Sequence to fold (197 residues):
Amino acid sequence: MRLRPVLLLAALLASACAGKPAFEPYRDPAGDYSLEAPKGWPREGNADLKRRPSSVVSFVGVPEPSDEGTPLGAVLYVTKFYRLRSDFPGDDKAFAAYKKEVLVPSDALFGEGPMPSDAPVVSDTQLGGLPAKTYRRDYEHFNRLHMPRPVPVRLEDVVARTPEAYYVLEYRAAREFFDRHHAVFERAKSSFQFLKK
Fold:
């Protein structure tokens, strides 16, 4: 008769562990950083920085809902945005547009310029041992031509900078999945390391 409580406890422990994600090491092909990525989340990305001012890798946990193949369910992104004109592949006009769109808002996060009035609440954190900024934002993603209804989305970003680039670790998910997979983001953040000192 004592066997039944033991079996019940074992079943409860197995159930509790079943929802925990597994992780595996990921190293950036350019050798800039590493982190622990969610095992079983398909990886996509482009590390070719010769034709673009940024590189991005994504780990897709929940592909649906989606917008023309872009997953909205639950995705972890790591993006590197170059800060220097010498690393930018386009002309001066293109760099000016890129600077206005990407670099100026990122500079504002670190106190170098005014924050927009609709900016989210930003707080201090760390990424890979560097000072960083973090924030959350909610919005509705809707493509009228390809989606039957809007999808409520929540994102959480951590932004760090080096003299050469901004690094953005982002977790983006449909709000119904956000809490369920948030541990993936926390693990990526805590394990993130910059490899070039």
Notes: The two ends are 61 Å apart (CA to CA). Residues 5-18 have pLDDT under 50 and may be disordered. Residues 21-194 form a domain with the Protein Transport Mog1p; Chain A fold (CATH 3.40.1000.10). Residues 65 and 73 are 5 Å apart (CA to CA).
